[in-house]
Write a structure and sequence with these properties.
By secondary structure, the protein is of the alpha/beta class. 50% of the residues lie in helices and 15% in strands. The protein contains 14 helices and eleven strands. The chain has helices spanning 9-13, 23-35, 40-53, 56-62, 83-91, 95-108, 123-140, 145-174, 239-245, 254-259, 261-272, 278-285, 289-301, 320-329, and strands at 2-6, 15-17, 180-183, 186-190, 197-200, 206-211, 218-220, 225-230, 276-277, 305-310, 313-318. It has a four-stranded mixed beta sheet. It has a four-stranded mixed beta sheet with strand order 2-6-8-7. β3 and β4 form a beta hairpin. It is globular. The chain starts with a strand and ends with a helix. The relative contact order is 0.15. The model is unreliable at 234-239 and 242-252 (pLDDT under 50).
């Protein structure tokens, strides 16, 4: 069974890739992956370690994020930002919104725990849920967030290159061919849950969200409609296994050995912020503008980035060679 997502010309013009990781949205996908049995070679070591560290409060939050099916939207907003700020937004969710979200979820997922009926009116229970959400993030995502951010940035770069060279059609065709099929003007998304539904974007656009933990395709029926997909799954099949076996330990980076730490930081920053100016590059990399310009020149001469002048600024972006180096060198 499939979701059929119907595009208009306006939707095609407003199709984009998420500009940065979305911590709580990624947390929901990690929670789903934790309870699933898919991809055992890639995920089971991480699952074993994570399950051993779950607190009682974390398990409360986990109960609202099933492996298959829907979960209350207020728990995992698809927003960019610091996790502490996003968790505070969850804590501040109006109780009527919580109640409505839970009722909608219960209609689609009748086996919700009985205690969820009290959640909107029981302040202490809601506080325990929010504490559990924080614990869950600390257990599942926080130890490896820097590595995940780098990998997601590489995937976004790949998708943007597909968009530039082949248009929206190539982007939608290649993002997740195992689970998604582009049959213009409809994107068909295969659903494990057996759901069969038509979604009409109505000119509000469409968002692709790369994920380290998504093992298939997850449709979020918000505005805009979004689909999460496995980030560069063919490039990093053992990423989580490696991280789970050595928690918190910094990766030895072939790129750092080759380029040096500062130049690697500059290259990674450009990958994460395609089209950034030299001034922005310096600020994000934590170096002086003159140093940023010097490192960018070396990277450009090596064919790893390209730089274009726009008015009084130089704008930097990754080349295919730079993408390959980051992809294979970590």
């Amino acid at each position: 069974m499939v979701y059929r997502i119907h595009f208009t010309v306006q939707d095609l013009a407003r199709t984009r890739v998420a500009e940065a990781p979305m911590p709580l949205h990624e947390l929901e996908l990690a929670a789903r992956a934790l309870q699933s049995r898919s991809q055992p070679a890639r995920l089971d070591a991480w699952r074993h370690r994570a399950r051993a560290q779950l607190s009682a409060q974390a398990r409360v939050a986990l109960a609202l994020m099933p492996a298959v099916g829907c979960s209350p939207g207020f728990l995992s907003p698809a927003k960019v930002g610091a996790v502490e700020e996003l968790l505070e937004q969850v804590r501040s969710t109006p109780r009527e919104h919580v109640r409505t979200n839970l009722q909608e979820t219960a209609r689609r997922h009748p086996s919700l725990p009985a205690w969820t009926r009290r959640l909107a009116d029981d302040a202490s229970l809601f506080a325990e849920l929010c504490t559990g959400l924080s614990h869950l993030h600390a257990c599942l995502l926080a130890p490896h967030w820097a590595q995940f951010t780098e990998r997601l940035a590489v995937d976004r770069t790949l998708r943007l290159q597909q968009l530039l060279t082949g248009g929206v059609g190539q982007l939608l065709t290649q993002a997740n061919p195992q689970w998604m099929r582009w049959n213009p003007p409809v994107l068909e998304v295969r659903m494990v849950s057996g759901a069969d539904r038509d979604l009409y974007l109505d000119g509000e656009g469409f968002l692709l969200i790369p994920s380290m933990f998504c093992t298939r395709a997850i449709v979020t029926d918000g505005r805009p409609v979004s689909v999460s997909y496995p980030a560069c799954s063919d490039r990093y099949p053992r990423e989580l296994t490696a991280l789970a076996s050595v928690p918190g330990q910094a990766r030895s980076s072939g790129v750092s050995i080759l380029l040096g730490r500062t130049r690697t930081t500059v290259l990674t920053t450009i990958a994460e912020h395609q089209g950034c100016s030299t001034k922005e590059l310096a600020a994000r990399a934590g170096i002086a503008p003159a140093s940023a310009s010097e490192h960018a020149t070396v990277l450009r001469e090596a064919g790893l980035i390209r730089s274009l002048r726009h008015r009084n600024s130089m704008l930097h972006s990754l080349t295919p060679l730079g993408l390959v180096l980051l992809s294979e060198g970590g």
